Amino acid sequence: MEDDEEFIDFYALLQIDASCDRSMVEKAHRHLAQLYHPDHTETADVDKFQDETRAYKVLKDAKRRAEYDRL
Q1: Is the pTM of this model over 0.90?
Q2: Under 8 Å CB-to-CB from 13, ≥6 apart: which residues?
Q3: Each residue of 21-50: pLDDT tens digit?
Q4: Which residues, 6+ apart, have CB-to-CB distance to 4 below 8 Å?
């Protein structure tokens, strides 16, 4: 994460606890991705979809998640 970048709480974004396992991360991602995906006309939100996807990519990977948790 760059120094000038605003910190985003990925756990809050995915609405999960920091102690959850990878399967819960994936479940939260699937739910929110469906909700915010640009193809879902009623609830589409490109910014939220991109933030959620970024959070998922970090939290699903054990090494990246550990690095994030040290921030």
Answers
A1: no
A2: 51, 52, 55
A3: 999 999 999 999 999 999 988 999 999 999
A4: none
